[in-house]
Specification:
The chain is mainly α. The protein contains 6 helices and 2 strands, in the order αααββααα. Helix content is 57%, strand content 3%. Strand 1 and strand 2 form a beta hairpin.
Length: 155
């Protein structure tokens, strides 16, 4: 991992301001608050122990590069690059919807967090920041009607 931005960050030299920036950037990259053990959470922990007024030592591009690397690592660990013979990161939005639907039918209930379908859905959302909320609403309505129909509930 030579040339890695992660290797250029010395947590003992991270200021509180840099730690806040790392947390913010990693949150944006992941789409959720960085978990314990992430670069951002470790940096915040170490920075909180510094005396106030501790000066920043890292340039912005180094911090942002390190965050991207760490967010990618966390995403790979959480979603798994390959699960059940599928490359989760390469699925289209339609394929993810089909995966969610198939897993939902097989389980009899919506796939829980950590499932292949929910992780794939998370990956698609990260790739497509400009989500068509109207299409999502319509898909949710269609799916709800399908579920009601499957369960024999009145529509």
């Amino acid at each position: 991992m030579s040339g890695s931005k992660l290797n250029q960050i010395n947590l003992d030299e991270v200021s509180e301001a840099e730690a806040r920036k790392l947390m913010s950037e990693e949150h944006k990259n992941l789409g959720y608050r960085p978990p314990p053990g992430s670069l951002a959470s470790e940096a915040q922990s170490v920075a909180s122990k510094h005396e106030t007024g501790f000066l920043a030592k890292h340039d912005t591009s180094t911090l942002e590069g390190a965050v991207r690397e760490d967010a990618a690592r966390i995403s790979r660990e959480r979603a798994g690059l390959e699960r059940e013979g599928l490359s989760v990161q390469n699925l289209s939005e339609d394929q993810v919807r089909q995966l969610m639907s198939e897993e939902h039918k097989e389980l009899g209930y919506r796939p829980p967090p950590g499932s292949l379908a929910s992780e794939a859905q998370s990956e698609v959302r990260k790739k497509q920041r400009d989500i068509d909320h109207e299409a999502i609403h319509e898909a949710a309505v269609r799916d709800a009607r399908r579920i009601q129909k499957e369960r024999g509930e009145s529509i």
